[in-house]
Amino acid sequence: MLVVHSPLCLLHDPPTEILSGKPVPYKESPDRLVRVRNALSNDPQRKYELTAVDDGLDVLPDILRVHSEDYVVYLRRAYSDWVEEGGDKQGVLPESFPHPKLPPYKLDPAKMSAIARAGMHLHRAIDILSLLNDVGGYYCFDLSCPITEDTFEAIMASARVAVRAAQLLVDGTQSTAAPHGIFALTRPPGHHAGTGVCGGYCYLNNAAIAVRCLQDAVPAGTAKPRVAILDIDYHHGNGSQEIFYSDDSVFYISLHAEGDYPYFTGSSVEEGEGPGVGFNLNIPLPQHTTGDDEYLATLDLAGKAISDYRPDYLVVSLGVDTYKDDPICCFNLTTPCYSRIGARIRELRLPTLFLFEGGYCMEVLGENVKGVLDGFLGS
Ligand code: OKP
Ligand code: ZN
């Protein structure tokens, strides 16, 4: 299996985040990537071929098919604006938000400080009335996404990994009969990032960017490929849901912990809207009691829904924070479960793009991710 990665993804390394009101070391660390990379490259059977993405690959057009331009401009400029204003070199994090219940907001965003812009959706700020109807219009929805000097470089590299992996999947699918899979070693993760908002360690939605690449890679006049996203990260992928909520060409399915972060989304009544009705499926599972058997039984239901949709491609948001000892999560999955998950995904017989999302138990992170991929390969 080809594994696409980029050393530039290691650059993003914020010192702290706020957890339960206290500053703690940042959990989404570069070491996560190193652990997974090492586990795959040390595979005794050498099943994984690591390939570094070309740093020159221009993915801005792909990113702009998913994210709003003002948001990407914000991500690119936030740190330098901040430092220019004398801000701390640790990076920029919002501390005040233009809450929709406190308008009017008549200040000129161009005259705002970088930290004000972090909390403010620049574009909407100009027409603040629409902000009232668009709570998703903030650049940050929580405090877990500091923008350091290297953040933009790393998130662009992560997007390049996703795009290159999608291209390779399309190329490979044309030449093989066996279910084909590619792993994109993306980091920072992406499934919490929405059209114009970061949060949950996510800045650019790598899976969504990859989906649009898969859909674009067809000759003119051919039907647009249908893509299913299977999100098996412990957390609900609120960003992926938002991006595809009214899109019937993308079926988003998530298994996640009920009532945990990101708290406000992930209910089974969120079914999509407009043409997207019926193409969003949330399957919340109970915290604390969900173990291997319950999880696999639910995954079978998701697999059935995916088969019924008859997608051309499967994109898997691969988080392994469902593990029993994950420091920020509360499911009880054991290491042997991950290869069983991979085997279930293999049974769908679809060209499959895996993208790395969450997973914070460092000791087994590599082993668990490799378990899913091994299971998919049938080994
Ligand atoms: C990312 B992924 C904010 C706490 C934020 C963020 C968890 C992000 C998980 N005070 N915790 O889905 O694994
Ligand atoms: Zn997660």
UniProtKB/TrEMBL annotation:
Pfam families cross-referenced by the UniProt entry: Hist_deacetyl
GO BP annotations listed: epigenetic regulation of gene expression
Classification via InterPro entries: HDACs, His_deacetylse_dom, His_deacetylse_dom_sf, Ureohydrolase_dom_sf
Cofactor (UniProt): Zn(2+)
Record has Coiled coil as a keyword: no
UniProt entry keywords in alphabetical sequence: Hydrolase, Metal-binding, Zinc
Similarity annotation: Belongs to the histone deacetylase family.
PANTHER family xrefs: HISTONE DEACETYLASE 8 (PTHR10625:SF17), HISTONE DEACETYLASE HDAC1-RELATED (PTHR10625)
Protein name: Acetylpolyamine aminohydrolase
